[in-house]
Amino acid sequence: MSLLPKVNIRRTFLIARRDYLGYVKTWGFWISFLLPFIFGAFGFLLASADIDLTPTQNITVIDETGLHADRLQDLYEENQEDAARAILATRAYFIQDKDKRAEFEKILRVDGTKAAQTYLRENVPGVSAGYKAPEKNFKFISPPADTFDALLPYLTGEKRLNVDGEETELGGVIVFKQGPDPSRPIAEYWSTNVNKLDAPDLVDHYLRRLARITYLEPQGLSVAEIDRRIALAPETSLFSPIKTSDEDQAVNKSDTVPYVVATVLAFMLWLTVFSGAYMLLTSMLEEKLNKLLEMMLATTRFSEIILGKLLGVAALTLSMMAPYFIVGLGGVLWYIFLGPADQDVVSGLASAFDAQMIIFLIIYLILGYILYGAFFIALGSLSSSMQDAQTLTTPILFVLMACVAVIPLGLSAPDSPLLRIATFIPFSAPFASIVRLPADPPLWELLLSTAFLTVLCIGTIAMAGRIFRFGVLSGAGADVVVSWFKRVVLRRKS
User: Fold this and answer.
1) How many CB atoms lie within 10 A of CB 43?
2) Which region among 179-183, 416-420, 432-436 has the lowest average model confidence (pLDDT)?
3) Cys-Cys link to 12, which of 23, 181, 308, 360 (CB 3.0-4.6 A)?
4) What is the DSSP string of 80-144?
5) Which of 354, 367, 362 is nearest to 428 (CA)?
6) Do residues 105 and 133 make contact, with C-beta atoms less than 8 angstroms apart?
7) SS3 for 188?
8) Closest Cα to residue 123, out of 154, 97, 151?
9) Where would I find the H helices in 177-301?
């Protein structure tokens, strides 16, 4: 017990309270705290106001061949139908009955959006109310002139159109010209808005389809029939061999939701550790530059200052992250109890927040914060300016950025060897282990990872204490570290 540093609980608490209240009383803290709610309210108002952020372009077609204008507009309507189908497909997530959901998806895929909407109104009336047709990025209008030269004043803004009783601009002109090969027309798009490419993209789609038609139809094959047969093609059924019951071995959302939850939690863990550690650095540097640390050392020990700062900034970080957890938890509870919850999703959420996830999430949150927090405290005590701090912390920031890169692997490749290796590297262990939990890794791997991280935390705290003492008492900066490296490591004389 004599090896442990002496700590006065009251002095440690006062330091933690001072650091916590010092940030909480600032305007910046409350702006950051309320930011999720402000953005949420702004997004809700924006959606309710139904503001058109991308005005619809008026596009006209000059078809010198007389073959492609009507076909291009037919393709445009088909694309609008496909967009509507994609939006309406999201309604399937709110259909609890699996048989009705499968029937709805089949009708939508084969018969189209109108038949699918009719099915929803007749069989799932509570779901159909949320459907909204996709907005059009542009629309076709009749050309105000017969030749391209006569259309130029409308394109340049010298003349304006009258569409549905309102004056507006001509957004663009599509020109089809006859090429050497009748099946390969020359297409041109003229517009002053060179960044909005919805109309030329449609023309490219049309030309690719035209190439398919001119190749298949001479062989007696119909493009429409091929597309219909593709839509009716069977789909692969997914099964999991680790499920016990034969009738429940099909893979559903209850199997995939835990991976999504683990990925989100791992990212939130990374964000919490990063923001807390960086606040420790700035707090330490500010108090060192203002000579407050020297005054504090007159009545407190080094260990009490380090522990107090760790506790104070930890409480502050949790307070700043609280709105995000509240919004996330509120969304989950609304979906389960008030929304048309999918029972597979509910089951997946329940299995994601099991005892193992909660226990290891808390363990890795504490150990990860202590590990990076001790590093940043030590580097802050060595810094004599913000430039020094940025130079010294750059390697640790690169390590943190590398660690966040392993989080998406938990969603796309939970069996990745890199993810398993990252579990045993203390710097990345908190994040890699969390995203691996839904894949049910061996318990010994998690315990060994925790042991490695604990040992490194103890060593880091011991090292940080020595560096902290040296940095504060000597007023050391980065130049002192460089001098020590040259003298001790490179064996150079001062």
Assistant:
1) 10
2) 179-183
3) 308
4) HHHHHHHHHHGGGGG---HHHHHHHHHHHHHH-HHHHHHHHHHH-HHHHTT--PPPPSEEE---S
5) 367
6) no
7) strand
8) 97
9) 198-216, 223-231, 253-289, 292-296
Res 492: pLDDT: 66
pLDDT tens by residue, 49-84:
656 567 788 899 998 888 888 889 988 988 888 888
Alpha-carbon distances of 119 from 20, 123, 125, 213, rounded to whole Å: 57, 6, 9, 33
Centre a 10 Å sphere on the Cβ of residue 377 and count the other Cβ atoms it contains.
27
Is-contact 318 292, C-beta < 8 A? Answer: no
**Which one-letter amino acid corresponds to residue 2?**
S
Determine if the pTM surpasses 0.70: no
Integer Cα distance of 212 and 61 in angstroms: 22
| pLDDT tens per residue, range 230-260 | 777 777 777 777 776 555 677 777 778 888 8
Looking at 138-152, 183-197, 298-312, which range is the least confident one?
A: 298-312
User: Distance (Å, rounded) from C-alpha 401 to C-alpha 188?
Assistant: 46
CA distance 490 to 409: 41
Percent of the chain at pLDDT > 70 equals 85
Over residues 91-97, mean pLDDT? 72
Tracing tokens 């372009």 back to the chain, one arrives at 57
Per-residue confidence (pLDDT) for residue 339, from 0 to 100? 60
Structure token pair of residue 224: 């429409």
Q: State the DSSP H helix or E strand holding residue 57, giving kind and residue range, or none if neither.
A: strand 57-63
Which one, of 455, 449, 453, 452, lies nearest residue 436 by Cα?
449
Distance from C-alpha of 460 to C-alpha of 243, rounded to nearest angstrom: 43
The encoded tokens of residue 417 equal 């060897």
Average pLDDT of every residue of the chain: 79
